[in-house]
Structures
1.
Amino acid sequence: MGSIIPSSDTLCRRIAGLVARKEDEVVVELGAGTGVISRALLAAGVPAEKLVVVEIVRDMADHLRAALPGVNVICGDAFELARDLPKALHGKVGTAICGIPLVMLPLADQQRFVSAVESVAPGKGFLLYTYCITSPLPYRKLALSAKREVWTPMNFPPASVWRYQPAR
Ligand SMILES: C[S@@+](CC[C@H](N)C(=O)[O-])C[C@H]1O[C@@H](n2cnc3c(N)ncnc32)[C@H](O)[C@@H]1O
């Protein structure tokens, strides 16, 4: 399920608090919309040059580029990261954050997304924020492990952040 209301400050801060990256790694936000989470990531200390935002809608990508100086905004498809993320960043993703409402997609498309992330961030998985009460992804079918890292009522609607990683 998606929301037409941007994520709250609290949710954005909680997401930013989950981000980890080594010095040479980037944080990749997939489906940034208005950029509220991107701004929280910058406020939490992610250097602009280490933040990569992938947004499929050209007008939104243009808006993000103007609003987020120094951030690498890519107008591209999160399901085609092997193609759309610069090769130099493959294997250099510390954390990937997904703002695309994957819950609404068929399993085959969810699998395509999981594979796309795995192709550029092997073993890392991704964070997914959601308004679902239970896991928005059928993680066992997708060969993922799942952990709810955050639940907050300080968002409309109340939101959770899940961490999905390839199951071992
Ligand atoms: C729910 S909005 C994110 C909202 C934002 N994080 C916020 O809280 O305001 C989802 C965003 O993902 C983008 N999007 C959808 N499919 C995408 C794809 N395949 N690749 C990249 N971005 C995509 C949409 O254009 C939209 O901006």
2.
Amino acid sequence: MKTPILVTGGTGTLGQFVVARLRAKGAEVRVLTRHPKPAADGVTYVAGDLETGAGATAAVEGVHTVVHCAGSQKGDDVKARHLMNAAAKAGVRHVVYISVVGADRTPVTSGVDRAMFGYVAAKRAAEEIVASSGVPYTTVRATQFHELAFQAVAAMAKLPVVFAPGGTKMQPVAADEVAERLVELALGEPQGLVADIGGPRIYPFADLARSYLRATGRRRPILAVPAPGGAARAFRAGANLTPEHAVGHVTWEEFLTQRLAV
Ligand SMILES: NC(=O)c1ccc[n+]([C@@H]2O[C@H](COP(=O)([O-])OP(=O)(O)OC[C@H]3O[C@@H](n4cnc5c(N)ncnc54)[C@H](OP(=O)(O)O)[C@@H]3O)[C@@H](O)[C@H]2O)c1
């Protein structure tokens, strides 16, 4: 029997693509999830909650490689701590971690910053937890996924006025292209922090909203309001962008067309 690769968050947007791509490469896959289901198509599911650490030890048992995709708006540092403690004890040989572009250059210092960008600070803390765990690792930072940008503009478009973060640009990338890179990294040797992965084009946030409204035949005024605080200022200065690593191929326009066709 082959040693399974553990994918935390294997039920999520990114993780599902990672699982499918690992399966296509012939890997056995184990998924850690809070909602386990019966094994199917070479994928087994183990119950676990990385917020509490429950199930982490069982999830990493007999595993050499982990792709850590589990994440949420809050507490990714805590999740990383629980996973890495279990991985270190189990002698895991490689953890691949997905972080976010700008994690290292977004100052989250004030209460306003923490309220709006606590997610980014937790990703940075998680990066450090992974790096200092003693487990060989590879960390890659990605820009926002098209899928997330789509969710955001779709939610905003429900209001009569669309409030866009003024001055902020986005470089969205297809989650599946990030998954492709994660799988390549997982099947290779640990490399520490590797080059960012970003989408092919950079757009003012308001333009993403505008193209969504146009594509869905809606008319809404867009009000660009700059968010307060140092972290938002860093984003306006481009901390969340990686123009030198615009390696994704799928553009926002292509994603939008595809997504709205289903
Ligand atoms: N979305 C973006 O634009 C973006 C950009 C750069 C990096 N990232 C990073 O990429 C990763 C995946 O993002 P995504 O957009 O694919 O997320 P997602 O669709 O929201 O999926 C989140 C996944 O995390 C799992 N999860 C959440 N809380 C958990 C917990 N307490 N214990 C165990 N599993 C938990 C969920 O599994 P269950 O519900 O099955 O338990 C789910 O599979 C995250 O680390 C995120 O920070 C995302």
3.
Amino acid sequence: MVGDQPTNGRQVLRASSVFKSYGDTAALQGVTLEVRAGESLAVMGPSGCGKSTLLQTLAGITLPNAGEVTYAGQEGVQNLVLLDDETRAALRAREFGFVFQQGLLLDELNAAENVAVPLMVDRLSPSDAIARAGQLLAQVGLGGLDDRRIGQLSGGQAQRIAIARAIVSNASVVFADEPTGALDSHTAGDVLELLLASTVRQHRALVMVTHDESVARRCSRIARMSDGRVISDVRVTS
Ligand SMILES: Nc1ncnc2c1ncn2[C@@H]1O[C@H](COP(=O)(O)OP(=O)(O)OP(=O)(O)O)[C@@H](O)[C@H]1O
Ligand SMILES: [Mg+2]
């Protein structure tokens, strides 16, 4: 069980007193949270409480109105809030991976091309990127499906491709927003297992929004939110 593993890795991400509003809506109202290497953090709470906003803020996709988000990566410790858009986008492409409910895969590309996108962004040659993508597809149990269009895959297969894409460029943090939300419980279990195996067990950090208690209990920590605040943050001990 992942929950049994110690989560005393080095701190990779820290949100400090983060506030974010959209017009009159206060989505985050002073969130302080840290994420360590090798841990899996489930973020839970009712619809609209700010989970996706927190995930996107930790990932440097959304900028907070106040507060800091520090990330300890290849360039040392940086406050993502202070980086310009281009530098932040490059850091995201290089060091973060993303898996969302609908996968956000590109329908017009095949499986291997989708996985290869982050490598090409990272300036690997297309042929090297496709070759590396093929290895990753085999690793997530989809060997031989390299040429398959996304529309010709099952939901579970598409999520495996999203996971392969998230980890292909050696991301040190993988962000997942309801990655199993659209899957039946059996497929969801398989996808979750793959997500944990490809992140936590390789000393990456996983930050995952989920509505499913059984999914959250397989993570090493659960943070619960309400009205833009973290109201509890506990280790999973079972
Ligand atoms: N781009 C946006 N523009 C305006 N309001 C937004 C935007 N994104 C989020 N919000 C608002 O901020 C609040 C928090 O939204 P968020 O998406 O973080 O919630 P959530 O916890 O992820 O909900 P769910 O479980 O439904 O996905 C909500 O009231 C939402 O309506
Ligand atoms: Mg959400």
4.
Amino acid sequence: MSSHAIIPEGKPHPADFAAKDNPAFILYDKLKTGYEEQPIPELGPDEVLVEIKKTGICGSDVHFYNTGGMGLVALEEPMCLGHESAGVLVQLGANGLVSKGVLQLGDRVALEPGVTCRMCTDCRGGCYQICEHMVFAAYPPSRGGTLQRYYKLPADLVYRLPESVGLEYGAMMEPLSVAVHAVANKGSMRTGYNVLIFGAGPVGLLAMAVAKGLGGNRIVAVDINEERLNFAKDYAATDVYIPIKPNADEPRPAYSVRAAADLLLSLGIPTRGPGSIDLVVDATGAEVCIQMGLNAIKPGGTYVQTGFGPPDIQVPMFRITTNEVQIKGGWRYGNGDYPLAIDLVNRGLVNLEPLLTHTFKFKDALEAFEITKAGKDKNGKFVIKCVIDGPE
Ligand SMILES: [Zn+2]
Ligand SMILES: [Zn+2]
């Protein structure tokens, strides 16, 4: 098939790499973790084996750690945590290079940790992220996460990293792809857009970076935490806004209309026409943020929901209908999001370095969860993204 093939098609994969042990970081129950030896995965013909070198900690990992579940899913049995990873290819399945025709042993790769059925109408229709048969790392019921030495994936779900991108930033391609999916894919971001982003946590900050990298005009960050907003302003936001306080007994919807008007007025943003808000991304899930976003957006604008909060909330439906506001869900990432994320970093359009605030050894994984949960480390330093090394 490809002249680069280093393993002829149809031949069984050679188990010629020096397979070591496979220690894994396991969540047994909420707040109860430990290390356990796991079997080294056996490869199917189109799969590859990655030796994990770096894994980032995500809000969802911390949520599982803290509560034993997330949203409608709960831990069913002990589960290896982690899903934001990069590593080195140590074994290729029998089909060798498989789909991309470019993978070689020793390649440094970012992992896309959701395996889909490829058969259903959603997979075939190009929206594999909503496949009902999705098996996602560290998301029950699943085969476990990436905080272990070896992890296998179909060959088309690993992406070779350019020379300029370190493995720790390779691990951050996962949350960056969430931001790319929200801003570029669902949000159809264009150069010159004015973008309003709620939440200055990791995903919100990455969404700001993507909006900036793709040529955004104004990028407005909203958060209730001033320290986060100061960071956002230095990082990628052109404007920041701390919401005004609600009045006593003021209903949320009324407050949200008032706060949206205050946001626009105080930043000199028109409600429609040139300079108005083209795109809103909510990375909080908070009801008032969602309402504010839907009230601040221009008629015909696009609103993307990526944050999680209460499952049922009130939205200004009359405004949505009469102004044809387009509301879209943004769930993880889909076709083309990883390549764009990697390209944005490789070309210097998105800088991940300021977001990587802490690194830990594999044996200290628990500390990474604890400080991500607290939002501060032992010395009071602000935590954005923690990355844990693979086992030594
Ligand atoms: Zn994540
Ligand atoms: Zn499917």
